[in-house]
């Protein structure tokens, strides 16, 4: 990347990263790139925030805090299903773009629907469709969605879907990713083909997807030369949620597992460190680097999920069973689904009522939480932890009723992965490194709303924007 008069800014976001894992691994020399940032910069605990009345630290509300310097009540993103259309204040990416500088974000949450900026924006998996900025980059989102489907299918179909993604060779070649990564992609494909278990295949696919994303981000930076850029990975967050029981087995009474499963959390952090190293090699010395997470992670021995498995909604089957309008299409996102009309029109209340009418026969409770957002219906399982029957029963034996017809729970749900064994915690991570930043220092009392004003200051940008956060005391010789 070319040198610039004002420092460039690069944010490496690692969803769910915690010092509880980073510190021992970095001290043991297993995270050399993160260790380099710590030793040459300022680091500390970053206090996350959550909307008033919410018991969880949610990425959907926390990442906008990082990018706007405002609390949830100020920036307007209060629920997990909100989008950038409901953001009430500008992000630092918009503020920097408005100065005429180039920006580039890859997988930063709450940028969908994408806005016009000087540079590029590839929204994260919360996006309802494949729109990007500029529009000609939509094939990247399409590739990402294909690999996401490969991850979601746990059996043989996952292998087929991975091959489908790899067959998009023209896309990978266009972004200078196919040939530099050919060796690692072939090794991943081989490990997937010969993995001993579905869990190991899932882990390998997750890692391969992140390596592809990193390669695509690097090529976009080569093309657009952003003055401010960001790359966010959810690898640590996902694996920590599902495999923490093997990271701290003494808290769960967990039996020994295969090495790939037992070391899944540690391997995720090592993979993140490797991606960071790839990116730092392409950054010039006039770059302020911020390594951040939006929340931490901690063991959850008493999971709020029932049974041994985490289930996701079979969105297509639900649409069919509920008899939704043919023009309504599903957009599965993590643990929930957004149903939207293909013409963007308002959704009739009758469609909402159909989904609200599904009940669990054995308990008489609604199967779903249903939110009518006018242009979309948000649907999420309503298997409340205070219903004793759910804690004791095999969920796959439940029956679902709608009017005079019934269907098995297992037809409307799909096993996705292990039951959650870790949950978001307040203490996140921050490291700042680069020109003008103190070296080898630690800082207490930082909040995620402090990152945006601090990065703008580091980039030498003055703005009339109002922040709830402060500029951190990280500057010095």
TrEMBL record:
What name does UniProt use for this protein?
Type I phosphodiesterase/nucleotide pyrophosphatase
Pfam families tied to this protein: Phosphodiest
